[in-house]
Write a structure and sequence with these properties.
The complex is a heterodimer of chains A (379) and B (559).
Chain A lengths: L4 E10 L2 E11 L4 E5 L6 H9 L6 E6 L2 E2 L10 E4 L11 H11 L4 H14 L15 H14 L4 E5 L7 H18 L2 E6 L2 H7 L2 E6 L2 E6 L1 H6 L4 H6 L4 E11 L2 E14 L6 E17 L8 E6 L4 E4 L6 E11 L3 E8 L2 E8 L11 E6 L5 E4 L5
Parallel strand pairs in A: 3-8, 3-9, 6-7, 7-8
Antiparallel strand pairs in A: 1-2, 1-4, 4-5, 9-10, 11-12, 11-14, 12-13, 14-20, 15-19, 16-17, 16-19, 17-18
Helix pairs in contact in A: 2-3, 2-4, 3-4
Chain B lengths: L1 H9 L9 H29 E2 L2 E2 L2 H9 L1 H31 L5 H13 L2 H12 L4 H8 L11 H26 L2 H9 L4 H30 L2 H6 L6 H10 L6 H28 L17 H28 L4 E2 L2 E2 L6 H9 L1 H31 L3 H15 L2 H12 E2 L2 E2 L4 H24 L4 H9 L4 H29 L5 H4 L7 H11 L3 H26 L3 H4 L1
Antiparallel strand pairs in B: 1-2, 3-4, 5-6
Helix pairs in contact in B: 2-13, 2-16, 2-17, 2-18, 3-13, 4-8, 4-10, 4-14, 5-8, 5-14, 6-8, 6-14, 8-10, 9-10, 10-13, 12-13, 13-18, 14-24, 15-24, 16-19, 16-21, 16-23, 17-19, 19-21, 20-21, 21-24, 23-24
Classes of the chains: A alpha+beta (379), B mainly alpha (559).
Chain lengths: 379, 559
């Protein structure tokens, strides 16, 4: 019953700005598919193109073998949940949910039955007579979902539906959304800037940046194996090491690391970008050679949890000094100054007992867990 | 409050220091009771007394012989409201939705009629279409059929509609701007056609604004005296009926004026109550996260909308333009001669220099008093909330409902005899101005003060500044934009006031509005009348212009 969505060569410009620079996407029937990226990356524009509120300059959108792009929004039969819910303030919860069915001139009995079922699905049957202004944020969100589901849409589109809720409710509601989506098996296109939300909810994720898809894949794949430094920096915490390959032998590459001044987090996207003065430093590490060649400049991404503390210096261990410790409950986050720049490390709380700023440590890491990118040469 | 009171009792009666604001509270109550409640009571009393006994004979007589004044008032009110909506709503849609170019200019021009005195609008339609009007004579000269008489209901409706439609325009366009575009998108997403969206989402959400504006227009029309007396001539509406009965020493009946006054007050109060009730019940809080994106509009529709918008605005500016142009033509009574001269102005300066002084002086004094009271009461209402201030807030609503004519008659009834004889003094003029404008001045202050964190003042006190110093150095400067906007609005309204002035003025204290009325209505002296009107318009627009230049973008939201 569920249908897929195919997007080909989608382009959209707003004046000078390229919001979508040729996007191709294939969403499988029944899939929960998430577009994630920093604000301005084009994810909402893409969603609005599918919904019909933005007109693409080029490309086509196909759903269930039917071209969507020539259709006006009200003929597309896609349920959309808006960021601020867009509940009709002059209509009761029941009338809000019935709105789409009434627009389709559905018979009275059918409207009543479908509205009741949609409200049942989101556990709001008891608020049917209330007006949106009387509901809490979470309840409004659920009405918006019920309203979109009541028309039995081909697809469910969700535009940052949880961004107006507080942190705890957000986690609760995303489980709720996932539950309803699974129960109905409805193909869902979900937009968020919250990478954690994307990882928690999705069957597959597309990471977007500057109007392009950086990587498409399942959450685990994207987290473990980021295709680009952007993805590595945007999804989860990442340490970047920058260096040059000195030699390659027996499947191992020796990399001399540069001393990074800092790992700068971009104010808008939160993406970490290494900043270096280009001078080769002291530290040398050995990584699986992969397809790197001697003399090549490389950027190595390592997750904070891939580091451990080792008692003494060894291969692939970086000496450093703890600058800061942050207790986060189950884990402790350390900021360690090393010859390769500041590195963030996350350790199980008990493994880090007794550590305090100023302590000298050796950071060991699992070289196999490193993701190696050829550094862009036009730096 | 209650909690802290019991707490202090438990600690053994800490006496709170005397709050000077309680004095302000008492003074405000005193003023409103003495100058509004008491005179209105007197008015009601005189409408219910006949030959030394309680009687409904005046009301019976009014409904028997003079009910046409009430009917006329209601008819004109309904028509003006209807036409204002017909003009105001599409204009708002055209400007906010259909991309009419020059949005800022349109907004500025639309507000102009609202602040220009309605009787000048009426007067200029007489200049154009009256017995000796330019167009009338042009048509006659060309042998064309006349457009029919402009005097009477038709003229009042024309003049007031073009004067008051901005109320509806402003409210509806504000509502359209704050309308979250996601609501209409949601409706489209749910399968509603554009027409269905308009019917089931847009219109219901605009209804509060349309009705709110309509009630304002209706209320203002009911209270209008100036244009009815100017262009209505023998077509009596309630305010002109009251005036004629009160002023006419031969056939007039003061008791009939009082009775009609009570009836008019009942009408305006009812409208005001409906308005408050409705707007209070039906205001949707819009959580617009996104500003409305400019929807794509077909060029043809945009051209049509542009023509329509500028056509309407042009029409509503005709009165102002006609008056200003006429003022520069030499004239001989109602006969205009070709040429260009300042002779009308010389005539005004020579014959009524005193009127200009009176207008400026009275307006300045009334504005000053109004602003001082407005600041004190506004502060009281926001920062010293209690059931007492709630009562004060309620009493401050009363002046909104009182037409100038009714207030003047009430004041004369109450203070026209000893022991408190105030008629024939400047005081009573100032009082009548201040009373009717006080709510607006208060509102200007409270609007701003609601946005000032009390913590700002607390910070000042915690740094060692006394409450008085805090008020002067922190609160007052922060309120300044609200105070100035209140002052400008008070000035604009008072300087063009005619309804109560014409009843309360005496001797040499005739203001410009009275002079214009006498020049035009009583003596058909078009030239000097136009010159005086132009001067009055300058007195209205120059302060507004200064305020707008000073406040720039913020001016609109402060008004």
């Amino acid at each position: 019953m569920s249908v897929g969505l195919t997007i080909r060569g989608l382009c959209k410009r707003f004046g000078e700005r390229e919001a979508l620079a040729g996007v191709d996407l294939e969403i499988q029937p029944g899939e929960f598919f998430t577009l994630v990226g920093p604000s301005g990356c084009g994810k909402t524009t893409l969603l609005r193109c599918v919904a019909g509120f933005a007109r693409p300059d080029a490309g086509e959108i196909t759903c269930d073998g039917e071209r969507l792009d020539p259709l006006p929004p009200h003929r597309r039969n896609l349920g959309m949940v808006f960021q601020n819910y867009a509940l009709f303030p002059h209509l009761s919860v029941r009338e809000n949910v019935a709105y789409g069915l009434r627009a389709r001139k559905a018979p009275r009995a059918l409207v009543a039955e479908r509205v009741a079922r949609a409200l049942e699905q989101v556990h709001l049957a008891h608020r049917a007579g209330d007006f949106p202004g009387m509901l809490s944020g979470g309840e409004q969100q659920r009405v918006a979902t019920a309203r979109a589901l009541a028309i039995e849409p081909r697809l469910l589109l969700m535009d940052e539906p949880l961004s107006n809720l507080d942190a705890k409710l957000r986690v609760q509601m995303r489980e709720e959304i996932r539950r309803v989506q699974r129960a109905l098996g409805i193909t869902t296109l979900y937009v968020t800037h919250d990478q954690e939300e994307a990882l928690a909810l999705s069957d597959r994720i597309a990471v977007m940046n500057a109007g392009r898809l950086e990587q498409v894949g399942d959450p685990l794949h994207i987290y473990r194996d980021p295709a680009t430094p952007f993805v590595a920096g945007f999804i989860g915490h990442t340490n970047f090491l920058v260096g040059a390959v000195e030699s390659v032998a027996e499947g191992q590459a020796r990399v001399r690391l540069q001393a990074l001044r800092s790992q700068v987090a971009d104010a808008v996207s939160g993406v970490v970008a290494p900043s270096s003065d280009g001078a080769a430093g002291q530290a040398v590490i050995v990584i699986p050679a992969g397809d790197v060649a001697a003399g090549q400049a490389v950027t190595i991404a390592l997750r904070p949890e891939r580091f451990s503390l080792s008692p003494q210096a060894g291969a692939n261990s970086l000496p450093g000094k703890i600058e800061e410790t942050v207790f986060l409950g189950a884990v402790i986050r350390l900021r360690v100054a090393t010859a390769a720049g500041p590195i963030t490390v996350e350790l199980q709380a008990q493994a880090a007992e007794g550590l305090h700023p100023g302590a000298e440590v050796h950071l060991a890491f699992d070289a196999a867990a490193a993701t190696v990118f050829a550094s862009p040469t036009d730096r | 409050m209650a909690g802290s009171a019991t707490a202090s009792k438990a600690l053994g009666r800490v006496r709170a220091p005397r709050d000077p604001w309680q004095g302000v509270l008492a003074l405000s109550y005193g003023l409103l009771i003495f100058f509004i409640a008491y005179p209105l009571g007197e008015l009601l009393f005189s409408s219910l007394r006949a030959e030394g006994a309680w009687s409904l004979v005046h009301f019976a007589k009014f409904f028997h012989y003079h009910s046409d004044a009430l009917e006329h008032s209601l008819y004109v009110g309904v028509m003006v409201t209807l036409f204002s909506a017909v003009i105001g709503v599409p204009l708002a849609a055209a400007v906010t939705r259909w991309g009419v170019p020059g949005k800022a200019l349109v907004r500025a021009l639309v507000v102009l009629p609202l602040v220009s005195p309605p009787f000048i609008g009426a007067y200029s339609w007489i200049l154009l279409l009256g017995r000796n009007g330019w167009l009338t004579r042009l048509l006659e000269a060309g042998g064309l059929p006349s457009l029919g008489t402009i005097y009477g209901a038709k003229g009042i409706i024309l003049a007031l509609t073009l004067n008051l439609y901005p109320f509806i325009f402003l409210l509806v366009s504000a509502s359209l701007t704050s309308l979250d575009p996601a609501l209409e998108e949601a409706a489209a997403n749910l399968g509603a056609t554009p027409w269905r969206i308009f019917r089931t989402v847009t219109v219901p959400l605009l209804t509060p604004a349309i009705l709110g504006g309509a009630l304002l227009v209706f209320l203002t029309t009911l209270a209008d005296f100036g244009s009815a007396i100017t262009i209505g001539v023998d077509y009596d509406v309630l305010p002109t009926f009251i005036y004629k009965n009160f002023i006419n020493e031969m056939g007039g009946e003061p008791a009939m004026a009082a009775t009609a006054g009570i009836i008019l007050l009942a009408c305006t109060t009812a409208v005001l109550l409906v308005e408050r009730w409705y707007v209070g019940r039906r205001s949707y809080v819009m959580s617009g996260l996104r500003r409305a994106a400019k929807p794509e509009v077909a060029p043809r529709l945009r051209r049509l909308a542009t023509a329509l918008a500028y056509g309407i605005i042009g029409l509503s500016l005709v009165p102002t333009v006609v008056v200003v142009v006429t003022s520069f033509f030499p004239s001989d009574g109602p006969i205009m001669r070709p040429g260009f001269s300042a002779s009308n102005y010389l005539h005004v300066f020579e014959s009524v220099p005193r009127a200009m002084f009176s207008s400026l002086f009275l307006t300045a004094v009334a504005t000053f008093v109004c602003v001082v009271l407005g600041v004190l009461i506004g502060y009281l209402l926001v920062r010293r909330r209690s059931q007492w201030t709630a009562g004060l807030e309620g009493m401050l609503m009363v002046p909104y409902a009182i037409p100038g004519t009714v207030l003047a008659v009430a004041l004369i009834t109450a203070f026209g005899r000893s022991p408190i004889l105030l008629t024939g003094t400047v005081t009573i003029l100032v009082i009548s101005y201040v009373l009717r404008r006080l709510p607006y001045a208060v509102r200007g202050v409270t609007a701003v003060l609601h946005h000032v964190e009390p913590a700002t003042e607390e910070a000042s006190v915690s740094l060692g500044a006394s409450p008085a110093r805090t008020f002067l150095r922190v609160t007052l400067p922060l309120m300044a934009p609200g105070i100035v906007s209140g002052a400008v609005m008070t000035w604009v309204q008072v300087i063009s006031e005619i309804a109560s002035t014409i009843l309360l003025y005496f001797g040499s204290w005739a203001t410009m509005t009275v002079v214009i009325y006498q020049q035009v209505v009583l003596s058909d002296n078009f030239g000097p009348g136009a010159a005086a009107s132009t001067l009055l318009l300058a007195g209205v627009f120059i302060p507004l212009l200064i305020f707008n230049v000073w406040q720039g973008e913020r001016a609109a939201e402060l008004m």
